[in-house]
Every structure is written in C-alpha cells, then in structure tokens.
Design brief:
By secondary structure, the chain is of the alpha/beta class. The chain has 9 helices and 9 strands.
Length: about 280
C-alpha cells in the first residue's frame, strides 16, 4: 500500500499542466482491487467519489465557508469538467457528506452523475445553496463507516471507489480510525485526505495532523493526501486534489513524494486519549 503526502504548494503547478501530460504524476491503470464488489446493471462510471467533509466545532465558521467554497469553485472550474470528460466513460458519480461526531453524518448532496458542464455546474450550485452548520466531536471513523455503505446499491459501477476525507482534527469518538480505514480498504475503497492545518494546535488537537492523516487515515491503492496550511490555499488545493482523483493520477515518487521531516511515531489513538484526559481532569 503506497501512501503519499503533498503540501498544497507542491500541487499548484499541476493546474496549468494538461491532463495528458505526466509532470510529477503517474496515471493509474491497474484494475479494481480484488476486494471490490460490483453491482449488476449499474451505470458504469470512471469514479464513485464520496466527499466527506468535517463540520465539527473545531472548525471556525469562516473556515466552514472557505471549505464549502473550495468545493463549489472546484466543480465550477473548466479543469474539473475537462478531467471528467477525459476518463474512459467521461463521467463520474459523486456525493457530498458532512460529518462531526460518531452519530452525526448528513448527506448534503446525494449521488449525482456528472457527465458534462451542465451537470457539474448544477452540482456546484446545489452545494452552494445549502447553509453551513457545525456539530460536536470529531469521528473520522464514523465518517468512513457511514461512507462505505453509500457505495452499495447507489446505481453506479465505478472503475474506482474513493472516500475523500477533509478535516482539522484527530478522531476522538467512535471506534479506532485505523479499523475503519482497514475495513474500507479491504472492500477495494481508497481513502484520500485533506488535513487542514490552519491554527496552532489547541488542547484537543494533535501536533502534526498531516502525519496523523498519513499514518492513520489514508489508505488503499494510490492513496494520497494534501495538507492545507494557509487559508488562501483552500480553493486551489481542493481543485487540484479533485483533479488527481478524477483523472486517476497520483504523485510520482521521484518527484512529489514528500517524506515527512518529523518522523516521530504517530499515535493513532491520540485524539481519543486527549479527550479522555480532558474529562478526567474535569
């Protein structure tokens, strides 16, 4: 299992590169993993994509707006529309899910077929029309466990299945995130990450969220993550990450593989431990 982590700044140049070129990325042509289960009679698409977006209270209201706007702008961009058209079938299926605690997930936009400019723009408009909200706790495991069954019986048969998790904190509720990740990967699903490192870590935040996502969250064939460290990176980084997913591209190890400079061991239960210690002190 190869996992890659890219700073957002390292991806910006990809936006100017035609998708037929391979500057710093590799096309993935492998067949679906053996664990993937396909539905008879479903419409064939290049990608089934769940966008699982963090809305926990650790996200400031303005960050929620920036996060949503990043996805809206991405689906309105010509680059994304061209990427969808460039696939073998020229279409993908996508759904947008908001999540917080272990029992708080909501489908904002149900499975939608994107097969051209009109459908893609309409999907962006639908996202833009829904008000943002916040909720308690952070359960990446809950988000993954909620997302996995969404692929079954959705009416689509994707060459690839991907859950795209964005968030600004570690798992602190529900089962261990590594268990959820491994169960999803065993079903042939890839989990990519968009960790948000915009603030100094607080009492319930892990130090090195990008390392946490790399070791504990992402997984599966060609899994990668993009770390956002500055507010102005939201729109471009989100668009570029979606381009890599839709066009079935991945970082080229010799060019864009970013080995973490801080290689301290990562505790995948750090979020749960910090939450428990907080309540024990109180």
């Amino acid at each position: 299992m190869r996992r890659f982590c890219l700073p957002a700044a390292a991806l910006m140049g990809l936006l100017a590169v035609p998708l037929t070129q391979g500057w710093g990325v590799l096309a993935q042509t492998e067949p679906p993993p053996a664990g993937a289960v396909r539905e008879e009679g479903a419409a064939e698409v290049d990608l089934e994509l769940v966008l699982a977006v963090d809305i926990s209270y650790s996200m400031d209201p303005d960050e929620l707006v920036l996060q949503r706007a990043g996805y809206v702008e991405a689906f309105r961009s010509p680059e994304i529309i061209n990427a969808i058209r460039s696939g073998p079938t020229g279409r993908i299926a996508v759904t947008y899910v908001e999540w917080a605690g272990a029992y708080d997930q909501r489908i904002v936009a149900p499975w939608t077929l994107l097969d051209g400019e009109g459908a893609t723009q309409a999907f962006a408009d639908r996202l833009a029309a829904v008000p943002t909200r916040r909720a308690y706790r952070t359960s990446i495991a809950g988000a993954v466990d909620f997302s996995v069954p969404l692929f079954e019986g959705n009416g689509y048969e994707g060459i690839r299945r991907v859950i795209d998790v964005s968030g600004d904190g570690a798992n602190n509720q529900g089962r261990p995130v590594t268990e959820s990740r491994d169960d999803a990967v065993a079903k042939g699903i890839t989990i990519n990450g968009l960790p948000l490192l915009l603030k100094r870590p607080g009492a319930l935040d892990v130090d090195g969220l990008d390392r946490y996502y790399r070791e504990c969250v992402i997984g599966g064939q060609g899994a990668f993550m993009v770390a956002i460290r500055e507010r102005h990176q939201f729109a471009e980084a989100t668009r570029t990450k979606l381009l890599l997913e839709i066009a079935n591209l991945m970082p080229q190890p010799g060019v864009t593989l970013a080995a973490a400079q801080d290689e301290r061991p990562v505790d995948c239960l750090s979020g749960e431990k910090m939450w428990r210690e907080r309540w024990e002190r109180n």
